[in-house]
Design goal:
The complex is a heterodimer of chains A (429) and B (230). Chain A is an alpha+beta fold and 429 residues long. Chain A has a single domain, classed as Orthogonal Bundle (Cytochrome-c3 Hydrogenase, chain B), CATH 1.10.645.10. Chain A contains 13 helices and 14 strands. In chain A, β1 and β2 form a beta hairpin. In chain A, α4 runs antiparallel to α6 and α6 packs antiparallel against α7. Chain B is an alpha+beta fold and 230 residues long. Chain B has 2 domains: 99 residues, Ubiquitin-like (UB roll) (Roll), CATH 3.10.20.740; 94 residues, no CATH class. The chains are: A alpha+beta (429), B alpha+beta (230). The interface between A and B is small, with 12 and 10 residues.
């Protein structure tokens, strides 16, 4: 029997699943990434420091805020720039906006069809109009928040080296806070619908290593040290010793490994490492879903995203309150003096931990760049999960094997590239 | 209905140096059409062939000999013996281009580069005549003192292709030039003058344009040289 999914739908970019089995035994199963390299690390070389975030933001249309922030953090570390508390708060808010945008997109449009047994989100408009309406509403508010804090819904213009370009007005922050408060009930409704259909998520478990940022003071998204469920904390500057990128023949994307053959990053990794710092709403939903640390079911990454949506929603409201209580200050933009240096920026984006690493010459021009993207860190773990999961499926019909393997990959919310593609699925028996 | 006295009498006229035989009641556009010589039209519709207003100015040809010299709309220009016109002269190209520019200046900018607008004649003419629009400044509400250039911010608006409704500058952020740099020299010249007045260096402008319009930097550079900025 052969299962060949070329290419997998409802994920970002191009990836194929290839399974060969004979007389009830698995011969091979492979997760193949067929994307062409996009060479961002090469074309930022020779560019001045203030353009790097602008360029690397274009790596992804979903994580554009995350890439911008990781890039700014790396540049600021290299040039020795400190940002104000207010700027850091606005950046955290920007990151929450992205988390909200991305998680609701994944849960609502990409995973929900699997939970309802539909092919895409469009049939759900007929069958579950209220749920789809709520999902679109949450997505809209996330976009509005990003538009306010970042200047645009994608590819932020407000986030610059040394802080932010412009502080949003008090009035606009109060408005968006009200909208977020109104969203809590909508979120609860969506979470309830997901919970009611969560039994469709396969009960599969495989122990692995989880890597995310960790912090003593908050649920680490913007700041922290590298944390692993196997080896504890590592400084961000030592990221190379954690990611250990390597090349495999079936994939154009690099794989990563640390303490084991593979590790996982993303919402589930963050939950497993930092669950105690979640907001009450998020903790409450984690309990309802039966999500307890350390959870080794990759399908629960979808649930962890629902939980994180609640966290970002509540924490955004708290952050805005804190900012309004401090009083908004119109800070002058920092004057940056270019100098030679090397800096690493690490940040938690919706799909996991992201590293940008830049070396600048004395004129502030980039001499070397390295970006390690979350999905690349997950490829190895997807492959290992498939190897463990596929043998348990072999007695089922081919279409079901295909669907289950697709759901496994989709659970990782992989962002293989950022393009929209026309998909064709070929299935041979 | 053709007048009886001219029926069957043929006359000769020249288009782009080649002689054609035609009926005396035809127009230059008719003769060109009958002989496969392309002349663009917008307001001419073959279904209403009797109504020829000559108003869109797209069918302009240059009279070289045998008539009043200069540019004339071919849809209303009757043939006459010995008339010689050019459909491809530099003057004709410029005049047609200007006609399209006037039309699109009042036209929505949004559909211009949308692939779904493939059937639009005006969009096709924009491509044919290398018209790529107006700068972001034309949509930007920041006038005079609130212009970012006046506040010392290197905004890419003056040389960037509009149709985003000045999304960023409208909210006070600088234009990064993500819609790519304009290539129309006349428009660029205005934009560069704005930079010069505000005291920006040519090197910085080029560096900014390189991010999203690497392929057009050489054009920008050439115009800067002609303008004495480099």
């Amino acid at each position: 029997m052969k299962v060949h999914v070329e290419h997998l739908t409802r994920v970002e970019g191009h990836g194929d699943i290839v399974l060969n089995a004979g007389s009830g035994k698995l011969e091979s199963v492979q997760w193949r990434v067929t994307e062409a390299p996009r060479l961002f690390e090469s074309f930022v070389v020779g560019r001045p420091y203030h353009q790097l975030a602008q360029i690397t933001s274009r790596i992804c249309g979903i994580c554009s805020i995350g890439h911008t922030l990781a890039s700014l953090k790396a540049t600021e570390a290299a040039l020795g720039v400190e940002i104000s508390t207010q700027s850091a708060m606005l950046r955290r808010l920007a990151l929450h906006a992205e988390n909200l945008q991305s998680h609701i997109l994944h849960i609502g449009y990409l995973v929900a069809p699997d939970l309802f047994g539909a092919g895409s989100v469009f049939p759900l408009i007929e069958t579950h109009p209220a749920a789809v309406h709520n999902i679109v509403k949450l997505h809209r508010i996330s976009n509005e928040m990003s538009d306010l804090v970042c200047g645009r819904t994608t590819h932020p213009t407000n986030l610059v080296v040394g802080g932010v370009w412009k502080v949003p007005s008090e009035k606009s922050l109060i408005e968006i806070r009200q909208k977020l408060v109104d969203c809590v009930d909508t979120f609860n409704d969506v979470a309830r619908v997901v919970l009611a259909n969560a039994e469709r998520l396969p009960a599969f478990s495989r122990e692995t290593e989880y890597v995310a940022l960790g912090s003593e003071i908050e649920y680490a998204l913007y700041d922290g040290a590298i944390a692993s469920t196997d080896t504890g904390r590592h400084p961000v500057d030592d990221y190379r010793s954690v990611v250990n990128e390597f090349v495999v023949p079936q994939s154009t994307a690099k794989y990563c490994r640390h303490a084991r053959d593979s590790y996982m990053v993303g919402a589930l990794a963050r939950f497993n490492l930092n669950h105690d710092k979640l907001t009450p709403l998020a903790k409450q939903w984690a309990r309802k879903f039966g999500l307890y640390p350390v959870n080794c079911n990759p399908f629960m990454n979808n649930v962890a995203q629902v939980v994180e949506f609640g966290h970002s929603l509540e924490d955004s409201i708290a952050l805005i309150n804190k900012m309004l209580n401090r009083g908004l200050k119109d800070e002058a933009r920092q004057k940056i003096t270019p100098k030679a240096g090397h800096g690493v920026g690490a940040i938690e984006v919706p799909r996991g931990i992201l590293f940008h690493d830049y070396t600048y010459n004395d004129k502030g021009v980039c001499a070397k760049a390295n970006c390690v993207i979350p999905t690349n860190q997950n490829h190895g773990n997807i492959q290992k999960d498939m190897e463990a999961f596929a043998p348990t499926l072999l007695d089922r019909p081919g279409r079901e094997i295909e669907l289950n393997l697709e759901m496994l990959v989709r659970a990782y919310d992989p962002c293989i590239s950022c393009s929209t593609h026309c998909m064709k699925v070929r299935f041979k028996l | 209905m053709m007048p009886a006295k001219t029926m069957g009498v043929k006359i000769k006229m020249t288009i782009d140096g080649k002689e054609y035989e035609c009926e005396p009641n035809q127009t230059v556009l008719d003769v060109a059409g009958a002989n496969g010589i392309p002349i663009p039209t917008l307001c001419f519709n073959p279904l209403f062939a009797s109504h020829r207003s000559g108003s869109c100015r797209m069918c302009l040809v240059e009279v070289v000999a045998g008539g009043r010299p200069g540019l004339q709309p071919s849809c209303t220009l009757p043939v006459s013996s010995g008339l010689s016109v050019s459909t491809v002269s530099k003057q004709v190209y410029r005049a047609r281009r200007l006609a399209v520019e006037f039309l699109v200046s009042e036209h929505t900018q949004k559909c211009r580069d949308c692939p779904a607008s493939g059937g639009c004649t005006l969009a096709k003419f924009c491509r044919d005549y290398d018209i790529n629009g107006v700068p972001v400044c034309s949509e930007c509400p920041n006038q005079r003192e609130s212009c970012l250039l006046k506040r010392g911010v290197l905004c890419m608006g003056p040389i960037t292709y509009a149709n985003c409704n000045a999304y960023c500058t409208r909210k006070g952020y600088r234009c990064e030039g993500c819609h790519s740099t304009l290539v129309n020299e006349d428009v660029l010249r205005f934009g560069l003058a704005a930079y010069r007045d505000a005291g920006f260096r040519a090197e910085d402008i080029l560096e900014g344009a390189e991010v999203f319009a690497h392929d057009k930097v050489s054009i920008l550079e050439a115009v800067m040289k002609r303008e004495g900025m480099l």
